[in-house]
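To close the section, here is one more complete example, presented without commentary so you can practise reading it yourself. The ligand is zinc ion.
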Amino acid sequence: MPRSNDAAARMLQEFAELLAISGGDPFKVRAYEKAARMVEGYGADIAGLDEKALDAIPSVGAHLARKIAEFQRTGSVEELEDLRAQVPAGVRSLLEVPGLGPKRAHQVYEELGVTSVGELLDALHEHRLQHLDGWGARSEENLAKSVRDAHLGGDRIQLAVGLGLAEEILASLSALPGVHGADYAGSIRRMCATVGDIDLLVASEEPEPVMEAFCTAPLVARVLVRGSTKSSVLTTKGVQVDLRVVEPSAWGSAQLYFTGSKAHNIRLREIAVRMGEKLSEYGLFDVATGRLLAAATEQEVYAHLGLAWIPPTIREDTGEIEAALSGELPDLVELTDLRGDLHTHTDLTDGVATLEDMVTAAKARGYRYYAITDHAPLLYMQRMTDQKALEQRERIRRLERSAGITLLHGTELNIQPDGSLDWDADFLAGFDIVVASVHSAFRQSRDVMTARILRAVEHPCVNVIAHPTGRSLGRRAPVDADWDEIFRAAARSGTALEVNSSPDRLDLDGDLVRRARHAGVRLAISTDAHAVTHLDNMRFGVATAQRGWAGPEDIINTWPLARLRRFLAKHPPAHARAGRGSK
Ligand code: DGT
Ligand code: CA
Ligand code: CA
Ligand code: ZN
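Output:
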């Protein structure tokens, strides 16, 4: 995604939030939010566009075009600076509180004088919120629960944010003279859904200039520790970054050590000790003679310990050491195995790109097939109708003739609180693929939620349950459901579960992917793209599936089209049919 689009979108989003929290006109707030989404998803880099060209971006009017131009020219916007000055910093931090929202943040600020998250927690504790207009005991308790849930996430950031930051810093460090290599390690390299801090490694015989460049980089707000080979900084966004500079000859052992996980490293060190060896970030050594046995590459170190190289995404000591010892490491799914994306949107509903642009981008990625799954009528804000769906189908069929890629016309249904769905079976039968997901009523009890999802799983037209737990990292906890029961039903009925690649979802997560696979469930790794740039998120979904030890065989969108189509037809497996016939 072009950085200038990103920066302008963030500016507009902040504008919207500050307007909202200072009690601004809701229509104006929404206009800024919509423009932020459009600018973020805009296909071309907006750097250098003049006001007129900016005005031509959908949802960006003359007024906002002027603001964006001012921002591009001067790096700030005067009106935004004024707003920033008006709203106390503590009040702004209320916007970060999940489940509060700008309108209510404004309300607690105005009516209760709450000016910080701490004061909000006090107000919750003293049950002062329930007496506000439009609140009640229930909404107060819901907010308390969101706050508790989010706190579980602590100060961790999303993988994509950490990875973006890591790549930005690495790009500048690897360009320095004397640098042999530079890479990220830690939880980012293991592709954990959230990361606590960013660990970077640089191979160089001359650490000093690397440290200097690192500690004086523009995005550094504060240097926490500066040493000759090890430094830690805090970025302007409050993220900690640790850098180690190591000898190029010890690159492999350093990578191994700093990638972790800690549990994985402990197991490796135990194996070394049993062999009379010692493993550290400096290498694998013979204890008796002190001789260096391996250090240059991870492969060498693993090989000396009698292990095959273990992919970082499964280094969690959950069986990978045993598997490597016995030569039974899983064949993990790779990005290049994917033949298509099975959950995407267009501007017919809440996407920001046209059907044609999304398809062109999918084709450019080398996909063989591509599903368009816009929202269905029950998500009423999206204004989908039967007629629009049928018109889209026609448009897709026409486009397909020249597109050079197989297009699947699908839809994303809304699983209602009672498990019912949009459209009847006749209408649903007209789609090539049907995705269904929960978008509301996330707090049902475990039994109700389980029954609700089971009803969708067992529907004869539903092919994929999208973002099954509904979690939103740092904002919303996963729904409570009996996943093992859902997995058994999905395996039985030939319904796939999704690994949603969106960085704020990564849902199912690695652990649930693993449990699903053990139950015989097939998975789909999809982006849920609402913009062309979101198609790039596939790498996060693939990594998440890897963390659940999934192989290409488990993932329906690695399959050839004919096999995928048989799965989507959702006939019971042959043995099940035979079984039924003979009894
Ligand atoms: P995070 O930052 O919480 O997302 O998770 P990690 O895994 O990146 O943890 P971090 O940053 O504390 O450490 C990075 C890696 O360095 C970790 O995965 C393994 C290694 N490491 C750090 N401290 C220790 C330790 O005390 N013992 C061992 N064996 N390894 C460590
Ligand atoms: Ca880390
Ligand atoms: Ca660290
Ligand atoms: Zn979707």
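Once you have examined the tokens, check your reading against these statements. Residues 3-21 form the longest helix (19 residues). The pocket of calcium ion (ligand 3) is lined by residues 186, 197, 199, 242 (CB under 6 Å).
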